[in-house]
Amino acid sequence: xxxxxxxxxxxxxxxxxxxxxxxxxxxxxxxxxxxxxxxxxxxxxxxxxxxxxxxxxxxxxxxxxxxxxxxxxxxxxxxxxxxxxxxxxxxxxxxxxxxxxxxxxxxxxxxxxxxxxxxxxxxxxxxxxxxxxxxxxxxxxxxxxxxxxxxx
Length: 152
Hints:
- By secondary structure, this protein is of the alpha+beta class.
- The chain has three helices and four strands, in the order ααββαββ.
- It has helices spanning 24-48, 51-61, 86-103, and strands at residues 68-72, 81-85, 140-141, 147-148.
- The strands form two sheets. It has a two-stranded antiparallel ribbon with strand order 1-2. A two-stranded antiparallel sheet has the order 3-4.
């Protein structure tokens, strides 16, 4: 075959530097740090509770933070209704999410492989699986010293 081209490379070469931008561990660390900053800011907002924070709460949730909510916290399957402000509910949610976030590590996001039919298989994950979370977190008390949301 004589269909060979006789082209020459252009003198105007553009060199593109490539870099690895899909580093999973870096992305997870940045995400966990960002989550921590958001939770810290929300905790501070709920503690400060000025006019600006109250307006933002209303804009997000469509309700004033001092609105009383009936929260059912069953004890051994028996309904147990508590009256709690929306702000106190959110404070407890932030506390719980912070606890969960603090339990996460980079290894929390590793895809564990385990073959129950071959427990001694060398391909099974050797990472330690964390203990189960506690059945309840420490109590958060309302201004009236009533416990708020006891169980996770």
